[in-house]
Structures are given as C-alpha cells and as structure tokens.
Amino acid sequence: MTYSFSARGSNEAVEEGPALAPKFDAAGLVTCVATDAASGDVLMVAHMNAEALARTIETGEAHYYSRSRRALWRKGESSGHTQHVTEMRIDCDQDAVWIKVEPAGDRACHTGRRSCFYRAVPLGKAPDASLTLGFVEAERAFDPAKVYGGKGD
Amino acid sequence: MTYSFSARGSNEAVEEGPALAPKFDAAGLVTCVATDAASGDVLMVAHMNAEALARTIETGEAHYYSRSRRALWRKGESSGHTQHVTEMRIDCDQDAVWIKVEPAGDRACHTGRRSCFYRAVPLGKAPDASLTLGFVEAERAFDPAKVYGGKGD
C-alpha cells in the first residue's frame, strides 16, 4: 500500500511549502518525538514508517514502527498506555515529527515510568568512569514483566 | 580518539543502572532532541557521535554531528546561535538524548526561525493531496543566505 504524501521537491519547496513530503531514511523511517501535551516533557523518541505516520494523522492516536519487532505498533496496544495526539508538527527538512500527546495512565516508557528520559547526565567535565547518571524519576508505576509479559510495548 | 563511555551491559544494566553506555547506531550516532529550557518547545532534532556527545557533556554547549558535512558541528559556529545546555537526559535504552538549551538569539533553525518545527500537520483524516501544512511560525528573523552564505549551520 502506498500513502499519499507529496513527492520531495526542491529544498525551498520542502522547507517553505505547504506540502507534506516526508524524508524517510534508508530504512523507510522518520524520527518522532512525543512530548506531554500538559507538562511539555519529552516522553519518548521513536520511529514512524509511512503507514505509522498516515495512521497517526488519520486517527489522532500515536502509531510507531517497532524496529525490533519490524511491525507497525499502535502505542499502548499491549500496555493500554495509548497516546492521544493533540498536535503534530514537522521539521524544516521533513525528516522528524513532533507530536504532543495525552498519555493514557500518564505513562509512556516500557519500564513503567512517565517518560523514557528518567536519568540525567551530569555536565561540566569530560565523561570518564566516575560519571554517574542521576535518577530524575526512579519510581516505576507498574511491573513491566506483568504488563507486557516480556513482549515490550 | 576514544571516549570514556561505559560498555553496553545487560538490558537491566542499561535501563536501570547509573552508567552512561550510549547505543550508537551503525553510523555511530545517537538521536538528540533539543528543547527550549524556557518554553519547553522542541527546537530541533539532530544527531551526536561519540565526540559530539562528549564535548557537549564537557562544555555544556551543544555539539552535533552533521551528516551532510560529515563533521563535528558546534551549534552556532556559523550563525552565532549557540545553545547553552541547562540539562541533559538519556532515555531507557540509551540511544536518544534530550537536552534543554538556552538558544542564543532565540533561534535554532537554519531557516531563521526559533524552532525547526514551524509547520503543523492537520489531523483527523487520511493524508491525501488536499493535506496542507499550517505555518505556526512563519516569520524568519534573518535571511539564511546572508547568515550562512549557503553553508548551513
């Protein structure tokens, strides 16, 4: 099946025009950043193929492409933590998408956390063996093994 | 030159441990999302190789890897629109980085805009030829040709 995205035109057309002409990479994917529509926090970074992008646009529910499972992935299909999309943006060269979402259950990460970005990297010196990530969000709201049964989301 | 990131361990170590063990892809890159430290808006999505990641951690100034120029890229080296990093996070499987930045000149996009995500994709029906992107931020603050002389940032 093909999807009705526009063909890639000139740089000017891609950057300044009104046509959606995504730049899928060699694997057929664009990068997608999902932020929490309420807090603005980055929840996750994932990928969309043409079908995932089209279904997200059509349904307003986040769909991704799972590179590990090589399959379309409706977010929350296993966990129930669906993502209702309130806004979608595309970047200048159209190889990245930003969606603002309302995450069901206030969870996005397969580890059971609100956001996948639950650890901070300390700044100010060259990274070496003493660098220690700081947990910003330690608590897991659920036991991933029970929710996914080892499948992931 | 090598950089002192930890070796990748078990999933449990990567996801729940305190060691920075980035998962660089086949091209040696991780994805980086930069958001505005003040507004929370996503400014850009770019890539970092090991050197760009190490230099960003060390200096607190955003460094990326330019895939088109195949070179380390200190953000703002041409445009002056540097990005001071106020916080860095890493995601569960450590293949994506989120940085909160203070963008000099309040600009991040090479088109002269605050954010690369200046167009909205309408939601609610299957994408077809009638889909028209909406400009959220139309205005360019500068003429890219004058700032970059055709080089980009």
Describe the fold and architecture.
Two copies of one chain form a homodimer. Chain A has helices at residues 11-16, 50-59, 144-148; strands at residues 30-36, 42-48, 63-66, 71-74, 83-90, 96-103, 119-120, 134-135. With 153 residues, chain A is of the alpha+beta class. In chain A, the strands form three sheets. Chain A has a four-stranded mixed sheet. A two-stranded antiparallel sheet of chain A has the order 3-4. Chain A has a two-stranded antiparallel sheet with strand order 7-8. Chain A is globular and about 50 Å long. The interface between A and B is large, with 58 and 58 residues. Strand 7 (119-120) of chain A pairs antiparallel with strand 5 of chain B, so a sheet runs across the interface.
